[in-house]
Design a protein that fits this description.
Layout lengths: L6 H23 L2 H5 L2 E8 L1 H4 L1 E2 L2 H12 L2 E16 L2 E13 L5 E16 L2 E18 L5
Parallel strand pairs: 1-6
Antiparallel strand pairs: 1-2, 3-4, 4-5, 5-6
Length: 147
């Protein structure tokens, strides 16, 4: 069943938007406890051949922590959230990231992807139980004039 615009559906959309925004904010703040709170314990997370896949949210959190340890400042944005079904709860979100190199912020990485998420209600609220990522672009850049 597709999502409509009832107040309950709008509340669900807001809850999903808050959760995927928490994911991005946690990365940028290097708040790994907050990051971990986005996923169920046994979430299946597939970032494709570029990064890999996991069936354990703690392992995925450890990977992301290690991957971002050498990084400088970063900006992760989650946009175009579309709730696709309510049983099960699924949504598609666009993600965009800029990650500056920790030793030379005139260089960095830019990525853009589509996240296809399935959600589960837990005692602690809505969590991602399955994420499939379709990377659109991942590129290195140099010449960042902002620094």
């Amino acid at each position: 069943m597709s999502i409509s615009t009832t107040s309950a559906d709008l509340a669900l959309r807001a809850e999903i938007e808050e959760l995927v925004t928490r994911y991005a904010t946690a990365i940028d703040h290097r708040d790994w406890e907050l990051f971990r709170s986005v996923f169920t314990d046994s979430a299946h997370i597939d970032y494709g051949p570029l990064m890999g896949s996991w069936d354990d949210a703690d392992e995925f959190t450890g990977f992301m922590k290690a991957a971002h340890a050498p990084a400088g400042r970063s900006i992760h944005r989650m946009t175009n959230v579309v709730v696709t079904t309510v049983d099960p709860i699924t949504a598609t979100t666009y993600g965009d990231s800029l990650i500056l190199d920790g030793s030379d912020e005139s260089t960095g990485d830019h990525g853009a992807a589509k996240y296809i998420d399935e959600f589960e209600r837990t005692a602690d609220g809505l969590r991602i139980s399955r994420r499939t990522t379709e990377v659109v672009v991942y590129e290195k850049f140099s010449g960042n004039l902002a620094v």
